[in-house]
Amino acid sequence: MNLQALDSMPRTPEGGLAALREAGYDGVQFGQPLDRPRKQEAMRLGLGVCGGGRVNTPGEVAPLAKEASDEGLECLTLHVGWGTEDDEEAARLIAAVLEASAKYSVPLYPETHRATIFQDPWRTKKFLAQFPRLEFNGDFSHWYTGTEMVYGGFDTKMDFIRPVLQRVGFIHGRIGNSCCMQVDVGDGDADGRPFVSHFRALWTESFAGFLRRRGAAAHICFTPELLGPEFFYARTFGGQEESDRWEQSLVLAYIARECFADAIKSRRAH
Length: 270
Description:
By secondary structure, this protein is of the alpha/beta class. It is about 45% helix and about 15% strand. α4 packs parallel to α5.
């Protein structure tokens, strides 16, 4: 569970981080600056801990990776650049990410996020060809909505981004439609919600690629990140949020487990 999302929810279970564990979560994601007392609490409860941050220049990457290593974080997701960098500037940022990840033995996953150098599929594929060791945090609602993946045919877009889906090491759980980044998915049934089927396909393909690279003994983070109206993610009607984000996070986690099981079956079949 992403704690930035959790902390802004109107309704959360009683019991704090222990309630997350009881609900079936294996870990939590912190933002920057790192809340060290809460991180220690999570570790005492046996929860995994990871982090996230933003890097705008090559020199900002190594200190963030070193802190993550020193603090025992499993990995970081990163917003890399603002998306206005030319190819040479972006390449220097990517090289710094890969170098810091190797130096401090911490996986660093750039996000497929708006306002970053990976904000669109075409440029991301181009950088992946140049830096084949890249692995991503698949925050796919940014692409699904931001590049309107259904326009021109979702299957066509899936084929185009397949090389990226083969290099996903982390997923931010959120589902959007063609025009809204974050929407209510009910109980996860795709009937009347074709975008749910599309995200199932994105997540299953990402899990399958991860299993091919790492094997069944490895683990991948699927982290619900349903942000609040203060970020203009959760939609409000009459002053009320569209859905119960705590319950919706559990639905997304349930969908992800089904997708992971499908990925394992597909791997065995091949």
